[in-house]
Structures are given as C-alpha cells and as structure tokens.
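pasting for the record
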Amino acid sequence: MCSLSLFPPPPPNGHLTLREVNNELVFGPMCDNCLSTLHSQDLSLPSVFIAQETLKMHSRLEHSAKTAFIHHEETVWKRSINAWRNSGLSGLFDEIANSDGEVPKLLQAASCFFLAVFRWVSSLHGSLYPHLTLSSEDMLAEFSQATDWARCPLRAFAWHPHTSKFAVALLDDSIKVYNAKSETVPILKHRLQKSVAMLAWKPLCASVLAVACQSCVLIWHVDPTSLSTRPSSGCAQVLTHPGHSPVSCVAWSPIGGMLLSASPVDTSMLVWDVSTENCIPLQRVGGGGVTFLSWSPDGSKVVAATPSPVFRVWETCMWTCERWPTLKGRCQTACWSPDGSRLLFTVEGESVIYSLQFSDTGGELLGQVGGSKTASVVADVSETTFETAEGEVRVGGEVQSMAWDPTGERLAVLFKGESENPATRTLIAVFKTNNSPVFQLLPCVGVMAKSPTFHFTL
C-alpha cells in the first residue's frame, strides 16, 4: 500500500512546482521573472495575477428592508399573511401566538401548540442533521472542495475540457474567463451570483458555463469570439427549484446533454434539461441532502455524497442507486478512473484513500450499478514528518479534494492542512496511477508546494 513516507521531502518555502519533465517535478523560486519565462517557453496559457486586496466580500445582511419605512399599525391578519410569506408556517404560528387580545383565545392556544410541535420537530431534525442549523455561507464552506472557502480569494476554478481556457470565481462573486487565444477577459456578474461554490464548463461546447450559486444555478453563454469584457445578465439562464438552495455542486454529463445540481439541504438530486429549464428530482430517503456530485467519464454512473456517513452511486440508464455506508464520517471527495470502472473516495476524519471496483454489466443487468460490496484501502496519507533545511515539515492528513487526470496516469490529492500551524503545509501530493491490468498507486517524484488557500482540477 502506498504511503506519503515514500515521497521525497517537499521543496523549501518560496519555491513552487513549475512542470513535470521525464516523470520528475521541476521546482523553481516563486518570482515574476520565472513565471513569465515559463509561460513564454512552455505553456500556451495566459498569465493571471489577482490582487487579493482588490477583492471585497459583499455585505450579506439577512434582515429585511422594513426598518427603512415609517412604522404604521397593521391588522393581525395582514401581519399574519406577511409572516407566512417571510417565514412560512412557523412565522404564521408565532405571529398569532403573540397577538394577545387581537385573536380568539382558542386560536391563540392552538397556534401556541402547533408552534411548540413545529419547533420540537425542527430541533429533532436538526439533531439528526446538524448541518441544517448552519447559515448558507457556513454550509458551503463546510462542504466545499476548496480549502478555506470562506476567505479564499479564489473560490472556484474550472478548466475547459477541450480548449485552452479556464474560469475562476473570486471572493467578490465575480467570475473571470481567461482564454489563451484572446487577451479579452470577460467578467461575469449577476444579481443572483452570490456565494459561488462550483463552476463547470459544458462538454462539447465552447461557450456554456454552469455556476452553483446560493439561490440558483446560473448558465452563462459566453461567446468566445466576443470582444465584450462585461457580458450582460441577459446572457445567463436562471435555474431554480423550491427548497434547492444553497447549491453546492453542479456536474455536466460527459456529452453535455444533462446537468446535475445538488444542495446540502435538499435530499433530491436534480437532473436538468437546460434547453427547457425543466428538472426531474431524484430523491432518496436519508442522508440529509447532497453535498458532492461526480459523473463517471463514460457517463454510466454518478456518485453522490451526503452530509451523513453514507454515499450513493447511481446508474444513469434507469436511475437506480446503491448506497455505501461509511463508519466514521461523510464522504468528503471522490473521483473516477477514465474508464469509469473504479471510484476513489475519502472519508472525513480518516487519512486513507478507498477504492471501489465496478464491473461492466454490458446491458445484461439493466438498472444495476454493479459495484463491489466492500471498499479497499489503496493509500495511507497519514501525516508524515520530513526533515528539511528549514526544520521539520509535516505533510498529509485529511484529504480535501482529489482529481484523476483523463489519461489515468496521475492522481492529485489536496490535503486540508492547518493554516494556524507553521510546521504544517497545505500541499498537493501527486501519485502515479495504473488502472489496467492491475490497479497501482505509486508515489510520484515530488510533492507540489502551494499557497494556504487553493482549489484545483485536472
């Protein structure tokens, strides 16, 4: 079994990974001249510099604007209607229960009873699924694939699967699109584009970008030949569904025909037909929501993680699923092999990588996922101490995110790290992989150094 102790020591502080040559990672000092030389010689990608001090978070005031208006008396029934619109049944019962002398005693007593029952049920549900007591921002930070999402200047990142361009979502909720063949950098902004958790380019299409936002899914249509740097909000479709917010994850099918979206508060995984803006909810009892989605490259399966110690794998022919319980915590992240036959995943609170093997049903077992009954441990990524010229450096621990490259030769593993501990670095470990005829996970030549806040895809 592979372990971090087989890796060489990480590079010193002030150095970063430049490229891989002959199975070796080449490091260099972190300076503008080195990066400029690298871009001009080896990469056909634009140079990106984002000043963190120029990014400011939007104010997230949760209270309403009624304090800006002159107070005037309203009837209890009008107040009750407004309370129901603003807070649902709990607001309605609370308003009637606190309207002494304005409603019949029997109605007030009944409202007090139903309000108590409602609060008891809510507290019971919250004790079963503690994440439901969090605010939308805290919930997205808890389940994000990016480290320190709440304060990270770069909250989401997405390479285009076919062309040399990428999109980045910033702390101020703006999105910038960089293209190697154009110096124009479109900036995408929308009034509903708040708390961006994930970006996803539509496969086999150069201009469609899905954005997971706090209250909806935005579908941007960005013309790659346009010279405009500020596309209008009319270039974005808005996909909404009751009870489906905040949206934490979006995933396109490999051929781009369907879009999946997930929310930690909604037990339904939504399958969208973007052209008609209609969706079909796929719901299963238990789990408390859906936190993470990943479509297998062959399009036959989808893994869906939940806030509870269980995750599901769906087959996309009949949309049936199989569930795998975990012993210690929820599934934090997962990734598929290029042929869709193997799923690697990690569990919160554990420092190992698990593997699930899936057989090819070949159409004989229609509606069957075909996964193995138990998962095997393929890598131990427990915290390891390296001796360097600068002292001891600790690497490893819990995994934040993973990505398997399309060739099946490299697996990148992002660790959570401890930003308050100077001896612990948040790093990316790169493994060599081979899925056929026998699965192998081997250490690569080096460990990639990185900044304390990061999000990555391959």
